[in-house]
Structure formats: C-alpha cells, structure tokens
Amino acid sequence: MSRSLSQRLADLPPETDPGFGTAARALLAGPDAGDEILTAIIEDADLPEQTRFNAFYCLQARAWRRKDHRRHRANTDRYQSRFSRHPMFFYLQAEYYAALGDDPANLDAALTFAVEAVERLMGVPGVLHLAAEIIADRHERDPGSDPRLLLDAERHVRQAIALSDSRYPRYHATHATHARIATLRGAFTAARASIARAIEDEDSTGAEYALRIGDYQLIRSRIQYAQEAERLGARQEEATRELRQIRSQVLEIMGLLAAVIAFITTAANIAAGQPARPAAGLLTLAGGVTLLVFWGFHVLLIGTVSGGSAWRRVAPAVVGVILVTAGFLMTGWGPTGAGAAVHQSVGQGA
Q1: Are 172 and 199 found together in one domain?
Q2: Which of 214, 133, 231, 227 shows the shortest CA–CA distance to 180?
Q3: Angle between the N-to-C axes of helices 87-98 and 125-141, in degrees from 0 to 180, rounded to the nearest 10
Q4: pLDDT band at 83, cuts 50/70/90?
Q5: Which residue, 207, 235, 263, sits at the end of a domain?
Q6: What pLDDT does residue 301 have?
Q7: Which of 175, 208, 235 is where one domain is finished?
Q8: Residue 302's domain spans which residues?
Q9: Pair 210, 298 in one domain
Q10: Which of 63, 109, 239, 317 matches a 20 to 30 Å C-alpha distance to 270?
C-alpha cells in the first residue's frame, strides 16, 4: 500500500505548479495516507528526494489543517536540513513562525519567509494567500504598521482568488482573508461582501465546515466592531473639537468682560475733573492701550485654537494702534501734552 502511495506522491505536479497543493490535499483523503506511512516514506532513503519531500508536504498540510501546530513545528525542525532547498519549504517556514504566537517578532519572521516564498512561487494561490494572511495578522496586532503592506496583501489575495477555482480547498478562505484586509483599510462594504461570499460558497459537506464557518462569523463580527469603532472615534473627535471651540469662546468672553471693566475703571479715574478735549484724548488712548493688551491675550491663549483669517487676527491690533495715535493727537499733539494732562489730573485729584 505504501508503494502505491509513494508512486502517487511521485506523480504530484511540481512544487511551482498552482495545482500542487490541491493535488497533495486530495491525496490525503486516501485510506493509506496516514501519518505513519507518510513518515516512513520520508525516511526511505531509496526513494527520490522529490517523492520524500512531497510526503513531507502532505504531512505538514494535514497538521496545519488540523491546527496541530506543535506537530507542524516539530516536523519542520526535524527535516529542515533535508528539504530546506525546496521552494515550498519557505512557505512551510512562514507557517512555522506564524503559528508561534502573536509576538510581532514572530510575525515579522513569518512575513520574511512568506515574501521569499511569493518570489519563488508567484503563481501558487496558497502561497499568495498565506502572505496576505500574515500581513493581516501583523496589522491587527500593530495598527501602526506600514499601510503599504496592506495594499500588497490585497494584491496577493486578489491574485490568489483569480488563480483559484472551485476545486481549490482554500478558495473560500481567500475571500475571508480579503474581508479582513478590507476591514483594516476601512472598506467595510467590500469586507461585508467578501465574508458573505465566503460563508455562502463554503461546502457544507466538508469535514471542516463548522470550524471554517466559526472563523467566518468571527470575521463578520470584527467587521461590525471595527465600523462602529470608527464611527465612535469620529463622533469623539467632533465632540473634542466642539469642546475646544467652547473653551475658546469662554476665554474670549472673559477677556472681553475684563477689558470692559478695565476700560470703565480707567475712564472714571482719567475723566474726573478734566476738560473735554484732554479727557477725550486720554480715554481714546486708554481704550487703544486696553485693546492692544487684550489683543495680545487673545493671540497667546485663544488665537491658536479658534483659527480664523489673518485679517481677523490683525484687525484689533490695527484699531488699537489707531486709537493710541488718535489719543496722543487729541491730548496735545504728542506725548508731552498727554503727560501734562495726566499731571494736571493728578494735581486736581490731590
């Protein structure tokens, strides 16, 4: 029986053929393709190396499909020295590191081997799909990763879908992976469409149907959660912006009230017992100085928040300078006259 299995392993397409993975997984359905027999073929030094590697790939494909990552890693470590030259071994190494956990260092290592596998096996859908899955995992763990990788992942998964057909075991899973990538990019409509297609087209008679549907439903829940989180973030940002505007307006009102009170107090002290012309000039001068002081307050504490045009920020300063100049002119054509008026006011108060 093992001899017949070894012949079928030898007849598998080349590793670079897009149908290699499909044919290998179909071979696993046979009653004679147990793990013990596959291991015996791997250890049989009389068989061609390619036949032995094909048996190794089938052994790893079964372990990965069962999510038996411990056995998958053990087999990779055990046979690495024998089969590391094969192009498909880079794909298996990517699976190895992807299964180690969520640590970014492991995902980076998995991505390194996945990129190498894509370069060597560009036309194999499973290789392209794995690279896209690893990039999606990396971005889910670290949203701050290079966003250009997401575009590479989407390109890989779309190519995998285009190269696949209904006989390819991971055909529907590629749509689920595309849904994950679209979610990370914020394309929620495309994500919902992809996961709906994956659920609809999944073969209900397959042995892994329940497991796959569970994964698809989890992805659908994540799409809904991500969309709601984005909406909540937009509302929170809008609320924060409105609060900043309210704070700016409150500070402006407080500054205006302070300026009015200061101006009234100063006007009362200056205008007491002064002739009309000097009093008017001093009031104008005081108003200009007060306006300039609180314009500086506005620029320092409010201007950077409230924004607005440059003219609106400069206009109060221009008006303040005009008032100060007019005040000097009205009190006696210069600083000397203004000082005399102030001195006279102080003398009368005494």
Answers
A1: yes
A2: 133
A3: 30
A4: very high
A5: 235
A6: 64
A7: 235
A8: 244-349
A9: no
A10: 317
Q: What is the DSSP letter of 167?
A: T
Q: What is the pLDDT of residues 17-46, one digit of tens each?
A: 888 988 898 888 888 888 999 999 999 999
**Element holding 87 (H helix, E strand):** helix 87-98
At how many degrees (to 10) do helices 125-141 and 148-163 cross?
150
Give the pLDDT score at 308. 55
CA separation, residue 330 to residues 18, 282, 325 (Å):
94, 8, 9
Q: 117-154: b or e for each residue (b if 16 or more CB lie within 10 Å)? A: bbebbeebbbbbbbbbbbbbbbbbeeeebeeebbebbb
Task: Work out the number of other CB atoms within 10 angstroms of the CB of residue 180.
Answer: 25
Question: Which residue do the tokens 């392209």 mark?
Answer: 128
Residue with tokens 């690279």: 131
Domains of the chain: total: 2
Cα–Cα distance list, 246 to 108, 153, 323 (Å): 46, 44, 30
Residues 251 and 219 placed together within one structural domain of the fold: no
Same domain, 227 and 276: no
One-letter amino acid for residue 336 of the chain: T
Tokens matching residue 131: 């690279």
Question: Which pair of structure tokens corresponds to residue 277?
Answer: 């012309």
pLDDT at 167: 52
Q: CA of 230: how far to CAs of 51, 134, 143, 226, in Å?
A: 51, 23, 13, 6
